[in-house]
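Backbone-to-sequence.
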């Protein structure tokens, strides 16, 4: 049994130099295979009694050796292929598919790609379940390479055995297989053949809490350091002894805990006492503040074991004065040096336009937190007080106080008065009103004058011809006022009425009288006071009344107007047995009246048919007479007896004559005749005939007619004679007429006779 060196038996062994290991293994295995019985050290073995399934083969190896061989490099493969004999079923090796991963069963590590040594077209898992790996030894092709096979197949077990035990090298180093022996590759911190010695570090001063698992102050000893309260380690709190024999660091020291450095507050001072160093554990600092500033916070701070001050550093804050507000109607302009309304702040006050400051202009905040005075107020500028105007009212609106800035005053006047001046005044910022106060003046009415022919008497209460002035009007005698007696000036500046006029008193208008003329003289207007009117009448008319009238102051004429009356003629009467038919133009029997006369039947007019009344009041002629119509006078001669009646005159119209004859005669003709209106008898006068002599009677009757004609002739002659006589002697006119009238008024004839000769 020469010295032999195993190739590698543990994971750490794979890290050795492969050139040296290959030479050593070559010699050892050559020898072992030859004996096939060698045990100990790192050697290869195979079972040559029988073939086994993979599981059985592994149990075989683990029972008699260490395990199925673990092949992890090409050179080892080449070695095995060269030294092992050819076997028909080849050799199982320690690789198996576990969870579908090819795994080294000895180390349970997966087969790495670079360690693979598969034959060509393997692993093919042919027929499935080829989960185990065989190694071709001395095959024609793919010698030394691997093939996956079903694990139940029986093949030779290829085993290996290691020399190192679990207790080798004091378990303080890697056991390195050698042929038939091993050497120890000690872990760091150990040394010796079996790694039985431990590296030491230098001893430490007492104090730290140390643990020494491998020896006092030796490799792997650890020491923990602690400091008293208020101190802290300067360095690592734990030191460890390294395999080099050095501690991991220098031993630490304890230093006082530091607090943050403090500085004096603004406007203040800082006074500190340090026991263990500036601003460290137990240092205490006192704070103070300048005049006008006050500390806000703790007076003293102390640095605690935790490196914290017992509180926040105080601040020096400026002493505060009460906050000031802008005055009403003003502004505040402050300058703050140390903060709003604090020590040394100064505030200046100003007022708006129209307001004036009452108080100090500037205040300053003192160190005592008080202002140097009371804040001023802004008071409205004052204007002079205004009074209501006479006869008016004042209505003011005060925004800031009576009669002060911005006060407005409106003026109004009573009814009948009008404002003379501004309606509204306003108090300006200068304390002056925008104008003079107005006055209330009475409303003016137009000036009135005395009317023509009249007087004016006015009473003025507030000034000539102004509101409430009253004016009374009067007129001279003979004139009367047309319009109101009194006018009053109203609040509107107008008189209550139009001024009256004095108009002349009017008399009734006069007209020209019928059939007359009127001629008037008017002094003050037609038919008014003092007018005079003269009356005149046309021809044929005569004035009845005053010729001249005058209109008096009472509006009455001095007399009744006269009338023009027609000139009167003497009244006319119808003649006896006649009629009067007058036409009167201007009154009965007056100027221009015409009267026509007519006579009854049986009467004839003697005189003018018509008369007219002249302007002289005389008729144009004498009224005519109606004389009865006369029939021829009858004369009754023996033997005719005639008895006549003459109601209207002798043998005149209406006369009736009755006839009879004396004894012995008989009446031949009518017994009665009557005088007709045409002055003819109604029949022939009868005759009386002897009863024996009718012819005679007839003659008589004939003769009787001739007698009548004779009588008429006689009468006519008499009338002519009378007219001649009358014309020849005018002075005897009346007496001449009398016989005529006598003729008219004839007496009663008792007997009538006819001139029988006629
Ligand atoms: Ca296969």
């Amino acid at each position: 049994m020469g010295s032999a060196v195993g190739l590698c038996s543990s994971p750490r062994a794979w890290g050795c130099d492969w050139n040296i290991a290959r030479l050593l293994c070559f010699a050892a295995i050559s020898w072992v295979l030859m004996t096939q019985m060698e045990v100990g050290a790192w050697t290869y073995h195979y079972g040559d009694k029988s073939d086994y399934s993979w599981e059985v083969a592994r149990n075989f190896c683990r029972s008699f050796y260490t395990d199925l061989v673990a092949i992890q490099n090409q050179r080892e493969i080449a070695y095995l292929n060269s030294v092992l004999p050819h076997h028909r079923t080849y050799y199982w090796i320690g690789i198996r598919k576990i969870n579908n991963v090819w795994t080294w069963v000895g180390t349970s590590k997966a087969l790495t790609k670079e360690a693979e040594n598969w034959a060509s077209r393997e692993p093919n898992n042919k027929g499935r379940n080829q989960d185990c790996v065989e190694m071709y030894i001395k095959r024609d092709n793919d010698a030394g390479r691997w093939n996956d096979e079903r694990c139940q197949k029986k093949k030779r077990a290829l085993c290996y055995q290691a020399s190192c035990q679990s207790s080798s090298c004091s378990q303080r180093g890697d056991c390195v297989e050698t042929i038939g022996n091993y050497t120890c590759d000690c872990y760091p911190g150990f040394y010796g053949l079996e790694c039985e010695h431990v590296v030491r570090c230098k001893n430490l001063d007492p104090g730290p809490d140390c643990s020494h698992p491998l020896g006092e102050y030796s490799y792997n000893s650890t020491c923990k350091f602690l400091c008293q309260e208020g101190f802290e380690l300067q360095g690592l709190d734990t030191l460890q002894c390294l395999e080099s024999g050095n501690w991991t660091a220098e031993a630490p020291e304890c230093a006082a805990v530091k607090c943050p450095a403090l500085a004096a507050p603004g406007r203040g001072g800082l006074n500190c006492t340090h026991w263990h160093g500036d601003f460290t554990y137990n240092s205490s600092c006192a704070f103070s503040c300048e005049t006008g500033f006050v500390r806000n916070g703790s007076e003293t701070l102390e640095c605690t074991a935790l490196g914290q001050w017992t509180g926040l550093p105080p601040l020096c804050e400026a002493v505060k004065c009460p906050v000031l507000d802008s005055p009403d109607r003003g502004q505040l302009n402050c300058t703050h040096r140390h903060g709003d309304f604090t020590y040394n702040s100064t505030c200046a006050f100003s007022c708006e336009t129209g307001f004036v400051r009452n108080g100090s202009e500037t205040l300053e905040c003192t160190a005592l937190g008080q202002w140097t005075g009371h804040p001023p107020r802004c008071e409205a500028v004052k204007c002079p007080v205004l009074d209501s105007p006479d006869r008016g009212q004042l209505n003011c609106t005060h925004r800031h106080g009576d009669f002060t800035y911005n006060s407005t005053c409106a003026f109004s006047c009573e009814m009948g008065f009008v404002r003379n001046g501004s309606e509204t005044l306003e108090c300006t910022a200068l304390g002056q009103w925008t104008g003079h106060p107005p006055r209330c003046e009475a409303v003016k009415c137009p000036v009135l004058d005395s009317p023509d022919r009249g007087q004016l008497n006015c009473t003025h209460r507030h000034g000539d011809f102004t509101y409430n002035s009253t004016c009374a009007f009067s007129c001279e005698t003979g004139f009367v006022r047309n319009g109101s007696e009194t006018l009053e000036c109203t609040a509107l500046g107008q008189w209550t009425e139009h001024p009256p006029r004095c108009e002349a008193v009017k008399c009734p208008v006069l007209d020209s009288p019928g059939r007359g003329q009127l001629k008037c003289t008017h002094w003050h207007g037609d038919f008014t006071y003092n007018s005079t009117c003269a009356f005149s009448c046309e021809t044929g008319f005569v004035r009845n009344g005053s010729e001249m009238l005058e209109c008096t102051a009472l509006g009455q004429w001095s007399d009744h107007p006269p009338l023009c009356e027609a000139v009167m003629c003497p009244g006319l009467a119808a003649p006896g047995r006649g009629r009067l038919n007058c036409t009167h133009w201007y009154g009965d029997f007056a100027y221009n009246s015409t009267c026509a006369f007519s006579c009854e039947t049986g009467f004839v007019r003697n005189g003018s048919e018509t008369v007219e009344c002249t302007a002289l009041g005389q008729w144009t002629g004498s009224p005519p007479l109606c004389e009865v119509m006369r029939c021829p006078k009858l004369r009754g001669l023996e033997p005719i007896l005639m008895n006549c009646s003459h109601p209207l005159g002798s043998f005149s119209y209406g006369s009736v004559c009755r006839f009879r004859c004396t004894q012995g005669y008989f009446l031949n003709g009518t017994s009665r005749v009557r005088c007709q209106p045409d002055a003819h008898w109604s029949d022939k006068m009868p005759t009386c005939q002897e009863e024996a002599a009718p012819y005679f009677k007839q003659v008589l009757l004939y003769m009787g007619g001739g007698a009548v004609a004779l009588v008429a002739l006689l009468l006519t002659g008499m009338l002519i004679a009378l007219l001649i006589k009358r014309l020849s002697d005018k002075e005897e006119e009346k007496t001449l007429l009398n016989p005529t009238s006598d003729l008219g008024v004839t007496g009663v004839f008792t007997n009538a006779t006819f001139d029988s000769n006629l």
